[in-house]
Amino acid sequence: MSRRTDENDLARIGYQARAGKTIVHAEVRHHALVDTVRLNRNSGVQKGPKMEKTHGKPLTHFSAVSWGQCVGLLVVAVMFWFAPERVLGQAAMPGSDATPAEGISFEPTVTGLEIRLGEQRVASYHREDAKILRPFFSSLRTPRGSQVTRNHPPIEGADATDHDTMHPGVWMAFGDISGQDFWRNKATMKFERTVLAPEIQEGALTFADSFVLLNTNGEVMGRQESKCEFIPLSGAWRLRWTATYFPQTSELVFGDQEEMGLGVRVATTMTEKNGGRILSSTGTTGAKATWGKSAAWCSYSGLVDGKPAGIVIVPSPNNFRASWWHNRDYGLMVANPFGQATLTGGAPGKHVVKKEAPLVLSFDVIVHDGEFSTSLVSLD
Fold first, then answer.
1. First-to-final CA distance of the chain
2. DSSP string, 240-295
3. pLDDT bracket for residue 22 (50, 70, 90)
4. Is the pLDDT higher at 37 or at 330?
5. What pLDDT is recorded for position 57?
């Protein structure tokens, strides 16, 4: 990591509201920790552009406050030199080819949120949509701006246009809940209310919404509560999506088919058909070899505008069951904890959720610049 300093700023962590917009920033900048405080026996102590004159008095005549400021800044400078992650926070530490992410921010939209790292928009959250009848994320980008999910909607001539309302970017959906199809947008997860308004704490963005599960007749089957956390990483960021399912009556039955779980549709240039690569935690590569197999995680990576980038799905080890993978060379990657018979030929994998014991499913989605590294999935 470069030790160059800049005389303009001290390291600062803070929140900023832009006038006229509901935009919240949690910024982390690291610049002058040494050069900003310079002792000059003729002029005094200089702090950035402001000068405190000593009128020729010896340095020992500085006030206690001035000395306290000097000592404090010197301590911070020493900490930065030997352990910069203690000063900046691990989320701001760059990798060998990464730049520190500026603060995460959000801006409410009519149907959800726009999420940014610094000035870079990295995701759009949709809680409501006229055609896609469930919550989803679209236009996921790396901290450097490489879009790793297919355009939404797909662009004719640039993208394959299949399943445009089923594969919008990142989604959690199920082709069979008590016989109702939420994957193909036949049944509806209708936005009900905000459980936790978006907030930024310790550099991470968190929000939660509640959705009503409606069958094709408009009858209430149950409820889903989605909690989403966005966490900046070094050259990457992580979405942790945790959904809890509550039956309306006695139970919900999650069926056994391919189209169940958390899915991603990657950017066209990243697909295996266009030279991209699928890798599982077992070391297996390729869509055919990983399809129907169990793994702790899968990565889909390739080139976007000539630069390496990728996306990773990591099912929580606390889920009720490990996931099998429904991966395709055209850019689909799905973590599926239900499709045991369909994907493996084993016993039926349906799962019954009782009213007194709601089902909790959690998945991490990691978006990264550069080549994939297993260090990305070893983080808490």
1. 23
2. EEEEEEEESSSEEEE--SSSEEEEEEB-GGGSGGGT-EEEETTS-BSHHHHTT-B-
3. very low
4. 330
5. 37
pLDDT-based confidence at 44, cuts 50/70/90?
very low
Structure tokens at 80: 């930065």
Grouping H, G, I as helix, E, B as strand and the rest as coil, residue 194 is strand
Q: Exposed, middle or buried, 368 (CB in 10 Å: 0-12/13-18/19+)?
A: buried
Burial 271-284 (b: 16+ CB within 10 A, else e): bbeeebbbbbbeeb
Domains by residue range for the chain, with CATH: 12-88 (no CATH), 104-378 (2.70.98)
Cross-strand pairs, 332: 265
Whole-number Å distance between alpha carbons of 160 and 288: 20
Mean per-residue pLDDT, 115-123: 97
Q: What is the mean pLDDT of residues 155-170?
A: 97
Q: Are 297 and 282 in contact (CB under 8 A)?
A: no
CA dihedral 31, 34, 36, 37 (to 10 degrees): 160
Q: Which residue carries 């009128």 as its tokens?
A: 55
Q: How far is CA 322 from CA 146, 160, 187, 260, in A?
A: 30, 31, 26, 13
149 to 108, 228, 329, 379: CA distances (angstroms): 21, 18, 14, 23
Predicted confidence at residue 32, as pLDDT, reads 31
Helix (H) or strand (E) segment spanning residue 86 = helix 84-88
CA distance 28 to 70: 22
In order of 16, 61, 72, 349, the CA distances from 64 in angstroms are: 32, 9, 12, 71
- Spell out a b/e string for 162-198, using b for 16 or more CB atoms within 10 Å of the CB, else e: ebbebbbbbbbbbbbbbebbbbebebbbbbeeeeeeb
- Which tens digits make up the pLDDT trace of 91-104? 333 333 444 447 99
Reported as a single tens digit per residue, the pLDDT across 273-302 is 999 999 999 999 999 999 999 999 999 999
Q: What is the pLDDT of residue 10?
A: 28
